[in-house]
Amino acid sequence: MSSEITRIHTGAPENLQERFAHRAQFMQPSEIRALFAVASRPEIVSLAGGMPNLTALPMDMMQNVVSELIKTNGMEALQYGSGQGHPKLREQICDVMELEGIKAHPEDIIVTTGSQQALDLISRIFIDPGDVVLVEAPSYVGALGTFHQYEASVVHVELDDNGLIPDRLREAIAQTRLSGRKIKFLYLIPNYQNPTGVLLSAERRSEILEICREERIFVVEDNPYGLLGFDKPSPNAMRAEDSENVIYLGSFSKTICPGFRVGWALVPQSLKEKLVIASESSQLCPSNFAQLAISSYLADQPWRDQISSFCKLYKVRRDAMLTAMDKYFPKEATWTKPEGGFYVWATLPAEIDAKALMPKAIVAKVAYVPGTAFYADGFGSWSMRLSYCYPTPERITEGIKSLGGVIQKEMDRRSIGN
Ligand code: PMP
Q: With contact defined as beta carbons under 8 Å apart, do 94 and 104 qualify?
C-alpha cells in the first residue's frame, strides 16, 4: 500500500463560511498556536510555550503505574465511567486541595478533561452573547479564546505586583452595570498568574471575595500553579474562604503531567447538576484510564516529593532567567519577579511593539509570546510573556542574551531615527 494519501479534489475549494454556524466565526487560532511552528524549531530558544518540564518525572515509575493499572484493573480502566468522574479520584482530589486550605466534599467535584474543559463547560452554562466576563489584565490566552467563542464581552481589570487591584474591580463593576450589561463571573488566576507570574496577596483575596459576594458575581478561581511556589506555600485558595460563590478549577497538568488530561471543577452545590449534564453532553465521561492512572499514582507514589522536585527545577530556571534579564535587558524595561509557576512578564519602553519585533527575535534564535495575545482588546503591544519552564538554564541565558540584544538594537534604531 502506498504510504502517500491522495486527497481527491472534486472542484474548487468551497468557502464554507456561509455553511458554518454563526458561532464558528468566533473560533480563531490563538496567537500562541501560530507561534509554535516557528518556536519549536530546534535552533530557536523558545521562551514562548508553557509546557511543563517532564524531565523531572521518572518515566520508569510512570510506566509501572500504567502497566500495573492495566494488569490489575484493566476491565474498569478501559471501560466507560461516571460522568461526574471516578469516586475514588474525587476523594483523592479533596486531599490534594487540602494543601491549599480547601475542605471539600467529593460530591461537589466534577472531573474534567484538563481544566481547559472546565472553562468551556462553565462558559457554556453562563455566557449568553454580549454578557460580560471580568478578567485580569492581562489574562490566560486559553480562557480568553473560550470566552470569545461564547461571544462574551471581556472586560479587563488592572493588576499589579500583588495581583488584581480591588478598587479597579469595583470601578469595572460599576461601569459595566451603568452600561446595562450583565456580569456573569470574574475569572482570575490567583497563584503565579499566567501570563504575569504574580501572586494575589492574601488580603486582596478576601477583599475581592467580599466585593463579588456583595455584587452577586461568581468568582472562577483557576489554580493550576498553586502548588508550584518556590520558597513558601501560596496563600490559601479563595475557595477555602468561600464555598458558595467560588467555582474552583484544578489540574494535574503541572503537578503530575498534562498528558493524562485530568483536571477538575469544585463547584457550589447549586451548580453541580448543570455542570455534570454539560460534561456528559460533551464527552459522556472523562477517561477512566487517565483518572485511574492518576489515582494509582496519588495512592502509591510520593507525589508531594515529586511536586518539590518540579519546584526545584523551575526555581533554577526562574533564577537563570531573572539573572540574565538583569544582565542583558535594557534598563528601560521592567519585569515581574515570580515566586512560583512558569512565567515572567516583561514590559518594554512604550514605543517598542513586541509583536513587530518577533521576526527579528526569530532571526536572533529566540521566541516569546507578544503581550497582545493576553488581552481581548488589542492592548499589551509593548509587553511579552517569557516562559522559563522548559529550556535548560543555559539555553534560557542564551535566549535572554539574544533577546536583550534585539530589544537594545531596536531602541538604538529608534533613538537615531528621532
Ligand atoms: N488555566 C491556566 C491558567 C493555564 O495556564 C492552563 C494551561 N496552560 C490551563 C488552565 C489549562 O490546563 P489543563 O487543561 O492542562 O488543565
A: yes
pTM of the model: 0.95
State the CATH number of the domain containing residue 168: 3.40.640.10
CA-closest candidate to residue 351, choices 281, 274, 407: 407
From 251, 282, 390, the mutation candidate for ligand 1 (largest count of ligand atoms within 8 A of CB) is: 251
pLDDT digits (tens, 9 = 90+) for 22-57: 888 888 777 667 677 787 888 999 999 899 999 999
Its domain, for residue 67, covers 59-300
Locate cell 539555553: which residue? 395
Condensed to tens digits (0 to 9), the pLDDT of residues 215-262 reads: 999 999 999 999 999 999 999 999 999 999 999 999 999 999 999 999
- Does residue 48 have its Cβ closer than 6 Å to ligand 1? no
The CB of 149 under 6 Å from ligand 1? The reply is no
Distance of alpha carbon 111 from alpha carbon 232, whole angstroms: 28
CA of 32 to the centre of ligand 1 (A): 13
Is 368 in the same domain as 328? yes
18 within a domain of the structure (yes/no): no
Total domains present in the chain: 2
Together in a domain, 367 and 234: no
Q: Are residues 402 and 335 in the same domain?
A: yes
